[in-house]
Amino acid sequence: FAAYEGVKGGEFYTPSSIVKTIVAILKPFANCRVYDPCCGSGGMFVQSAKFIQAHSGKRGDIAVYGQESNADTWKMAK
Fold this sequence. Notes:
This protein has 3 helices and 2 strands, in the order H-E-H-E-H. With 78 residues, the protein is α+β, with helices and mostly antiparallel strands. Keywords: Methyltransferase, Transferase.
């Protein structure tokens, strides 16, 4: 997937097109909680916030929770 999008994947990379599709299916809403058990650099959180903002909400209207075993990647997500 990563090569198809023209980027190099990391340890386990989920392409933004897949993340956008997942977020579009889940349709996060204001005051919801988003949990990503393997959050990586936080792409799911970013796309969820963008989705809410695009649908008349504010980026801060969601609470995000996640974990990441790679400390450097976790710092990027934070």
